[in-house]
Amino acid sequence: MAEPRTELTIRALVLGVIITVAFTAANVFFGLKAGLTFATSIPAAVISMALLRNFRDSTIQENNIVQTVASAAGTLSSIIFVLPGLVMIGWWTGFPYWISFLICALGGILGVMYSIPLRRALVTNSELPYPEGVACAEVLKVGSPGEDATAAGIEESRVGLMAVIWGSIVAATFAVIVATRVFASDVAQYFRFGGEKGSVTGFDFNLSMALFAVGHLVGLWVGVAMLLGAVIAWAWGVPHYSALAAAAGAAADVAQATWSHQVRFVGAGTIGVAAIWTLAKLVKPVASGLRSAMAASRVRKAGQLDSLPRTEHDIPIGLVGIIMVACFLPIAWLLGHLSIQSGLGAHMWTLIVGGLIYCVVMGFLVSAVCGYMAGLIGSSNSPLSGIGILVVIGAALLLVFGIKPLMAPGNEKGLVAFALLVTSVVFTVAAIANNNLQDLKTGQLVDATPSKQQWALVVGVIAGAAIIPPILDLLNHAYGFAGTPGADPAKALAAPQAGLISALAQGVIQNNIDWSLIEIGAGIGVVLIVLDEVLRRTTKSAHLSPLAVGLGIYLPTSATLMVVVGALAGSLYDKRAERTAKPESAKQLGVLLASGMIVGEGLIGVVIAAIVAFSGMDAPLALVGSDFANAAVWIGGIAFVVAMLVLYRWIEGVARRTAIA
What share of the chain is helix, strand, coil (3-state, %, to 5)? Predict the structure, then answer.
């Protein structure tokens, strides 16, 4: 029987919403500027523990509610990968508040509801690593050792907390020095072969301790798979397609353009096939999850809820269905409203019914795939924009075959806007499911009540949906987006994913997309699926996740290579830990050290984002000019290596001393 305890409280919800405002603002700005967002779960958990520890009845589960609210809203900021596309194509001039709010809120709530049966399939009955969920749980545990802890347990918590703190301090300090430009942010080099119009390639190691830590958490084989993807992209894809183009110019510019406009679509094809394969493998566990949810609902109706273990306390499946239907109605209104606005009123009911079915079915499918990817490599590294590419292509193709033949030429912009609206809703569902399952994994590890976490997720979604539209509107008016009619290229925010997805919608509807790239990626995906199955059946632990390889192709090397390095370092550390008196405790300290690095860089990232936003300068903390760039690469690279060696030698020594004690 589940004992009552402090968990879903007003103060936890309020604190979560307050943290949400700061983190969401930073995520929206950085996401539009650099195409990257950061996970907010762990920084929110650290802030929560610091603020709530003075309350006598505060618990680890209450701190978990705070991070759940904040992380849901932070993840919702991923809508910036699609929604600005409506401004870029000239359909909107700003972000109408209530329409933008409804897109975010309705899609987000659907994502929460979809994640309820998926929780049983992908969290409760799954061996997926959930690196960020595990890291967040470890941070919560070392910050909340509990009243009944033994002397040995208290000492382990103290040592674990020190690992988190020192990891945080070193990562935060390094990030601050990078912001001063005394240390370079990355070590990158691009090459050209065969003359001034020959093929190009290159690499980019981002000097990010958070990415290094993610590599430690995801493990060796996911790192190897991502490395294979990077090799496919940069040893074959970029050199091959740049040689065909025979473009002159700086090697770095040509390489990035080739990867962005061609190789990335190969990666999207690989991710698409891997996603379909993942879905096929999830049919049985998802069906089992639905059956167990219905069984739990029958027990609840019989008045025997207390007889169920706490992990079975989901929002009742009947109420889940009612909430989903309540979301479908305003989504239908949004689709009808855009149909009339775009001059497609003659086909309004076809668009409403077809769009709603697409949102419902595709939303559930991408929720399952994104949840699986989050469990595999973490929410921060899950290729949401790759899923967005597949969703927008699907929506645009349906419009091309179902509506375009019935229309007079010249109204293609309305079809593009409709495709982007549908994609925005599905994308929001996917983003929230991608994050929620990570949070529910954290909850499982700290003995949280799933239903209370699920309600906290709904609160987080509504809070994020309320704050995102005005932030987007502010940034649109202050900077504009690259490629938007009338935007100043000198100060416009890049918004790379939104530009890519809106260009895809236009390309499909106007029939000028290169399908061969996606087909090649799909072929690579099929080969990888076969290879992965062979490895799993013929070896003890070797595997090659097709999704992780697709990620390596699709993501820039600045987001993958340091993860690979971290995976190799983490594997080496774990092997050395096996030789200690308490191998599992030693490995756990490595996880906590990695968690601390993510905490430190995440928290300082919020602070730096605020300074950048309020100063109006690109590098307000810079202490040196561009002439110091070459020296900064050497100094930063050497400092990064030394810092990692010192941290890992220190934590290994701590593990040995703790084992002896």
Answer: 75, 5, 20
CA atoms within 13 A on the CB side of 200: 24
CA 430 to chain CA centroid, Å, is 10
Least confident interval from 11-25, 149-163, 442-456: 149-163
pLDDT value of position 282: 62
Confidence of residue 148 (pLDDT cuts 50, 70, 90): very low
Count CB atoms within 10 A of the CB of residue 446. Answer: 18
Averaged pLDDT score across all residues of the chain = 80
Residue of 53, 124, 37, 153 lying closest to 431 (CA atoms): 37
Taking alpha carbons only, the member of 628, 640, 604, 632 closest to residue 30 is 604
> 323-358 pLDDT, tens per residue?
989 999 999 999 998 888 877 778 888 889 999 999
- Residue 547 CA to residue 555 CA, distance in Å, equals 12
Residue reference for tokens 């967005």: 388
Radius of gyration of the chain (CA): 24
Distance of CA 223 to the CA centre of its chain: 17
Q: Is 537 exposed, middle or buried (0-12, 13-18, 19+ CB in 10 A)?
A: exposed
**CA-wise closest residue to 229 among 541, 640, 567, 539:** 567
470 Cβ partners below 8 Å, 6+ apart?
A: 97
Nearest to 80 by CA among 388, 319, 483, 318: 388
Task: Please report, to the nearest 10 degrees, the dihedral formed by the alpha carbons of residues 167, 208, 19, 39 taken in order.
Answer: -110
% of the chain exceeding 70 in pLDDT: 82
Beta bridge partners of 481: 493
CA atoms within 13 A on the CB side of 104: 34
pLDDT in tens, 272-310: 788 778 767 766 665 665 565 566 556 655 555 555 566
Query: Which of these, 543, 544, 560, lies nearest to 552 by C-alpha position?
Result: 560
CB-CB contact of 143 with 46 (8 Å): yes
Residue 284's contacts (CB-CB under 8 Å, 6 or more residues apart) are: none
Tokens in use for 554? 């699709």
Cα angle 448-384-381, degrees, rounded to a multiple of 5: 65
- Whole-Å CA distances, 463 to 19, 362, 398, 407, 429: 10, 25, 33, 40, 16
Instruction: For residues 571 and 217, give the distance between their C-alpha atoms in angstroms, rounded to a whole number.
Output: 10
Distance, CA of 535 to CA of 511 (rounded, Å): 40
CA distance 221 to 138: 22
Q: Which helix (H) or strand (E) holds 440?
A: helix 412-445
Tens digit of each residue's pLDDT (9 = 90 or more) over 205-249: 889 888 898 788 778 888 899 899 999 999 999 999 988 887 888
Q: Helix/strand/coil (H, E, C) string of 309-334?
A: CHHHCCCCHHHHHHHHHHHHHHHHHH
Single-letter amino acid, residue 100: S
pTM equals: 0.73
* Contact indicator for 42, 136 with CB cutoff of 8 Å: yes
